Amino acid sequence: MTRLGEFFAKKSINKSDVARKTGLSKPRLTELTNNPQTKLRADELYLIALAIDVDPGELLEYVCQGLKLKKT
Question: Where is the HTH cro/C1-type domain (predicted)?
Answer without folding.
Answer: 10-59
